[in-house]
Amino acid sequence: MTSKIIGTGSYVPVQVVTNDDLAKIVDTNDEWITGRTGIRERRVVMEEGTSHMAVEAARRALDNAGVKPEELDLILLGTASPDHCFPSGACEVQGALEAVNACAFDISAACSGFLFALNTMQAFIQAGIYRTGLVIGADCLSKLVDWKDRGTCVLFGDGAGAAVVRAEDKGMTHTVMRSDGAKWQVLSCISRTNGNFLNHQTPEPGYISMDGQEVFKFAVKKVPECIQQVILESNLSMDDIKYFVLHQANYRIIESVAKRLKQPMDKFPMNMDHYGNTSAASVPILLDEMNRTGRLKTGDRIVLSGFGGGLTWGATLLEW
Ligand code: ACO
Fold first, then answer.
1. 221: which residues sit within 8 A by CB, 6+ positions away?
2. 295 shares its domain with 224
3. How many domains in the chain?
4. For residue 237, what are the domain limits?
5. Taking CB atoms and a 6 Å cutoff, what residues make up the pocket around ligand 1?
6. Of 112, 135, 168, which residue sits at a domain end?
7. What is the pLDDT of residues 165-208, one digit of tens each?
8. What confidence score (pLDDT) does residue 193 get?
């Protein structure tokens, strides 16, 4: 027994922020952002938070799958930007959906959040513990970036994507998840500085900080490695894979991964030009777009891969 994605959904805020809009608040320009990242515009929330986006994506995925909320056994939300320290965003989603029979919790793996949540769901289903699950990747990094830091604020967008997963004979076949905590400082966001009545300090919110070139080097090395691993373990070849659905951080990373895997770029769908880097949401948003536009056919073999802060990275090989 394995697990299969039987429905997808996504949600992005309506507010579009173009590169030209950002050039009005920091010293940047469309040519720099597009040339280095492939990003032209992103969506940014006005009122809604991470849980709201997650709930909307989840409702659409349940509708697409034809599954009722009460059928869900487990809800996993991959996010680095929950609305609250506690309860988890997944519990908020459960409440909003009235998924009364589910257990719900968040998974923290930054931009790898959806991939880690999906692989965790697969492990529970493969072990026979649960039968039907909801996996969500949602992030609202617009509240975590320093809007005065041109090195990071141009990269991200807000959004959520979701997949309904069910125990089936065919579906996910091989998974890999890795992390390297020694490099946590390469990409981080302090949620709140220390502060209490003893040290007389007031806790302050932190912002995303990133060593862009280290992230680049890490991604172009580790992503091909984990993709090769799931393909090798499955006794398939690269040519058997129809699409590689990668975290949408930037097009140069994806180009470099394609080159290292000796695979054509048309096997690497991309949408970061209009959504930016939506962190844990990027893989499921892209998957949902591909599903709804009919690009995915039954029997297609695809590899999903995520990478991000932690450092974390991983891949999933599945049959659609
Ligand atoms: N507009 C104009 N100039 C800028 C901007 C900007 N938005 N940001 C930085 N610069 C300037 C820098 O100040 C620097 O100027 P200087 O030479 O006068 O000092 C110059 O551009 C080069 O800066 P670098 O940081 O060296 O730029 P780099 O070529 O490395 O590109 C980038 C930065 C795009 C972030 C690159 O490192 C990269 O692609 N890294 C991958 C990381 C990534 O994609 N992160 C996304 C989030 S993490 C994740 O999803 C896993």
1. none
2. yes
3. 2
4. 174-319
5. 28, 32-33, 36-37, 111, 150-151, 154-155, 187, 210, 212-213, 215-216, 249-250, 252, 277, 307-308
6. 168
7. 999 999 999 999 999 999 999 999 988 778 888 989 888 888 99
8. 77
